[in-house]
Hints:
Blueprint: E1 37-38, E2 48-50, H1 57-63, E3 76-77, E4 84-102, E5 110-117, H2 124-129, E6 134-137, E7 145-148, E8 157-167, E9 182-183, E10 185-194, H3 202-206
Antiparallel strand pairs: 1-10, 2-4, 3-9, 4-7, 4-8, 4-10, 5-6, 5-8
Amino acid sequence: MSHHHDHDHSHSHHHDDHDHDHNHDHSDDIEPALQTLLWKQIDFEGIRTLNESETDSGAKCVEKTWNMRMDPEPYLESDADEQLLMFVPFTGVVRLHSILIRSSPHPSAPRTLKIFHNRDDLDFASASELQPTQTLQLSQTAEVQEIPVKRAAFGNVYTLSLFFEDNFGGEGGEGEGEVMTRLWWIGFKGEFMRLSREPVEVLYEKAANPRDHVLVQGVGDAAGAGGMGERHGM
């Protein structure tokens, strides 16, 4: 698929996808497992997204805290076509349990997500051709959806590449013309293993250290990440 990034930026954003009822209390939706939410362990400065319509919008969606997950802005929208490729580095090694995504009940919701771990050299061509670590099928919903991953395949992760291959606006989709993909929040659950990618002593690995199981991070109202630099490509 060609990515010329010549999409007309004059299109308007009326937030038609965001028709969620904010009167619903989401405080207890996934509350019991919040202690496994990875947020502080994400290297926000290193996030890069290809084919995003607005620079750094992908990073800003990941940078949202748990309490900001239902906020209508910022959001990520694809540019030249429906595909998005996001590179997310961590500050150390993590054991990934699941991915959390909030999109919408509309055709702009992503349908297929291919995940690659510890690959920072992907573009759309290689992401389409290579075998991903795992492929996930997503749903059309304005609620946060949590999709478990195969833990054995994601036990030693320091980077993730998320390839949103298509959306629900393709075959049999509503409306005329190509539908761009939109996302409002992306989160991760798992265990933070260590700060370094280097091998550590076996004694440390076997020790039952409560500090290895980081308590709730990114649950406050403040985003807490530094300024976002210029990142226009991988």
